[in-house]
Write a structure and sequence with these properties.
The protein is an alpha+beta fold. The protein has a single domain, classed as Penicillin V Acylase, Chain A, CATH 3.60.60. Helices cover about 35% and strands about 25% of the residues. The chain starts with a strand and ends in an 8-residue tail after the last helix.
């Protein structure tokens, strides 16, 4: 099944090579599933590879050459063509957008005075997600631990073979999350790969975590979105110990909200650009209202453990409308992992994180389903059970668990 935890360090190519080697089977299956999904959407592989080659120069200019070096490492490590992994990273968000629920208590809105942040990562399933590296037609999430040659450390959750992150934190005191926004225009628009000149949100999130601080992360990512919009509308959230910025981006407009000493959240809809939202998207409305209720009730006292509890919340469900999302059909959006983060403003490298793989209501309640730590820890500090895919299989269940 491949590694459930990827520990990578060094140059971008070395990080990618270790990623590709450590999750070789998962990378190969994810890329194969990507091609199947594109074929089902009517795209020819040779056409998409041609577009990837054409866009490669644009991406290097827009986002820097480092991501191409990392993709080359992943391809070599997994033993598949560079252009296949490049196309997967460029266009994955078109066929498999990140769902998700994000919560934050910024600055004095938390119990410690330093920001606490959480995200549930949700995803649809598909017929193509079959084989030893998938479970019940769902993508198996992996933990990525990357140490760059300049000392930057990043930990988060990703899909095997992707250079991007679903959510994560760095040792400079910065955390991030992202989610798709379901807009009327997205459902009316036929996505044309020939018009896409930006990589997906997961990579923009990763790019932000490579910056020096939260303001620089927001400036860099918002600037890229203004120059070339995301493949699908969505939110990207960055926070440090004292403030947060929520970026909302659609095809032709962008909004940024600054949050200081307050609570906030996002589901799969816009708040600032709310006039764009899909009117009948009940799930996003339910989850947004519920997260606002939970955070407001504990404003000024929100802890990391509260975020764990919020991650398992079954109000309006359990089902697609609850924060911890369950489904009766594999095509539904369901929760696959979660991450909670507590920043340390004085010693950023000691900021704490917790990651669970599988359904939050199961994985947070069992020591075998989650790991807690900070960015001073070593590979050996990660429980041995996280180095095989059985963790996800054990804790991914649609039958909800109650305390």
């Amino acid at each position: 099944m491949g590694a459930a935890v990827l520990v990578c360090y060094g140059t971008p190519y070395r990080i990618g090579r270790m990623h590709g080697e450590g999750a070789r089977a998962s990378v190969r299956h994810n890329v194969l599933s990507f091609w199947r999904a594109l074929a089902a959407a009517g795209y020819r592989k040779d056409t998409v590879l041609g577009l990837a080659r054409e866009h490669c120069e644009d991406q290097a200019r827009l986002l820097g050459a480092r991501f191409q070096e990392e993709i080359a490492g992943i391809a070599d490590g997994a033993g598949i063509p560079f252009e296949d992994v490049l196309a997967y990273n460029l266009y994955r968000d078109v066929v498999a957008p990140e769902e998700c629920t994000v919560l934050m208590a910024v600055g004095s809105a938390s119990a410690t005075g330093d920001t606490v942040f959480a995200k549930n990562s949700d995803k649809v399933g598909g017929e193509s997600l079959v084989g030893p590296n998938f479970y019940k037609y769902k993508e198996i999430n992996v933990i990525l631990w990357a140490e760059r040659e300049d000392g930057l450390k990043i930990v988060g959750v990703c899909a095997a073979g992707s250079t991007g992150l679903k959510m994560g934190m760095n040792n400079r005191g910065l955390v991030a999350g992202c989610n798709i926004a379901r807009t009327e225009e997205m459902y009316q628009k036929n996505l044309d790969l020939t018009q896409i000149r930006a990589i997906d949100r997961a990579y923009l999130l990763r790019l932000g975590l490579e910056q020096e601080n939260v303001l620089e992360a927001t400036r860099v990512v918002a600037g890229h979105i203004m120059e070339s919009p995301m493949a699908t509308p969505g939110n990207i959230e960055f926070a440090d110990a004292r403030q947060a910025y929520i970026i909302e981006g659609s095809y032709d407009r962008l909004a940024v909200k600054k949050v200081v000493d307050d609570v906030d959240s996002r589901s799969n809809c816009f708040v600032v650009l709310k006039e764009l939202n899909k009117k009948d998207d009940l799930s996003s409305i339910c989850r947004y209202i519920r997260t606002q209720e939970l955070l407001a009730a504990k404003k000024g006292r929100v802890t990391m453990q509260d975020m764990v509890e919020f991650s398992m919340d079954h109000a309006n469900g359990p089902g697609p409308n609850s924060i911890c999302r369950h489904g009766t059909d594999f095509h539904e959006e369901v929760s696959l992992s979660a991450m909670v983060m507590e920043l340390n403003g004085k010693e950023p490298e000691k900021s704490r994180f917790g990651i669970c793989l599988g359904k939050p209501c199961h994985a947070w309640r069992d020591p075998a389903g989650h790991v807690f730590g900070d960015l001073t820890m070593r590979r050996e500090d990660i429980p041995a059970g996280f180095f095989d895919g059985e963790v996800f299989k054990k804790f991914y269940q649609e039958e909800p668990r109650f305390a």
